[in-house]
Amino acid sequence: MGFILLPHFTLLPFAGFIDSLRLAADEGDHSRQINCQWTVMGAQLNEVESSCGVSVRPWEVFRDPAEFDYIVVVGGLLHQGAIASDAIIEYLQQAATQHVPLVGLCTGSFALIRAGLMHGKRCCVSWFHYQDLQDELADVTPVADQLYVEDGDRITCAGGSAATDLAAALIERHLGNQWARKSLRILVLDQARPANAPQPQPANNKYLLVKDRRVRRALLIMEQNMSRPLSTTKIADRLNLSKRQLERLFVKETGDSLQRLYRGMRLGYGLWLLRRPESSVTTVAQECGFADTAHFSRAFRAEFNMAPSEARGRELTESMR
Predict the structure, then answer these.
(1) Cα(28)–Cα(177) distance, integer angstroms
(2) How far is CA 146 from the centre of its chain?
């Protein structure tokens, strides 16, 4: 596998993916490239700074794409200048003409899009960057409710820890389950999640449709404060708006009031949490910012026309089939 690091790439998906390969590469923990081989490439050998400031120097300049089974592009921050240089774009296009499978981790998929290599493809994206993908106006189908998506010889991944799940799937495909399990065990992971597992922070439909950046920022603040809901005044203060301005913006952009939408987001989060059998209804209520279980149960029934226990029962029944 050849890795290409884009400016301000995120460390976790890169480290999780490449460490999974390393641990599956030999029987011990010696990092010998026996079962798997990998390299980090660049148009030049200049260090590439990650989103957290840690820099990585490519090991070599681009080599013939045909030498690789996969080329993995690791992205990160979108608004810190150019995502990929012309040299990287040209190399990816060359790889595509040679039918080398291309993998986009985190926002690495944006480089594939800008290289014109994702036309008509499904593209996995973090819920956090869904709107950014929509703004690209590319001929792609965004997918924000899965960990990763494989569409022909294009594989895209939401990033974060999901890169480890994707790496495990590819290791199992080419080396077998025992090697994938070895990597996961040493990484202290129970098992790899499937591609269609939901992203841990489900996207809110209202957020995906919002254009006003102030409302989008407010929705992100709300997403990050589920267990301890903020007042409208506190959210407005963070945005340097008055409470009345923010309330008007919300009605204009979403057709709903901020607090009513906030409540719906928290209940939707609760519905997602109830899929995890280890979480009690009481715990879910607390995670969603409700003072007590009874209050949560009443609100949940009013929103979804069923009790929290019914939602859990249906999910468990479906998972057993």
Answers:
(1) 16
(2) 8
295-301 long-range contacts (CB < 8 A, ≥24 apart) are 296/270, 299/263, 299/267, 300/267, 300/270, 300/271
**From CA 93, how far away is CA 239, in angstroms rounded?**
41
- On the question of pLDDT at 316 being above 50, the answer is no
Helix runs in the chain, H state only? 11-24, 86-97, 108-114, 130-135, 162-175, 177-186, 205-209, 213-223, 232-238, 243-254, 258-273, 281-287, 293-304, 308-320
- Of 31-35, 193-197, 238-242, 311-315, the range with the lowest mean pLDDT is 311-315
Q: Quick one: the chain helix, strand, coil %, rounded to 5?
A: 45, 15, 40
Tell me the domains of the chain and their CATH numbers: 2-186 (3.40.50.880), 205-320 (1.10.10.60)
Tell me how far apart the alpha carbons of residues 78 and 11 are, in angstroms, rounded to a whole number.
15
φ, ψ (nearest 5 deg) of residue 237: -60, -40
* Cβ 136 vs Cβ 85: under 8 Å: no
Overall average pLDDT of the 254-269 stretch: 91
How many helices (H) and strands (E) the chain has is answered by 14, 11
Burial of 90 (0-12, 13-18, 19+ CB in 10 A): middle
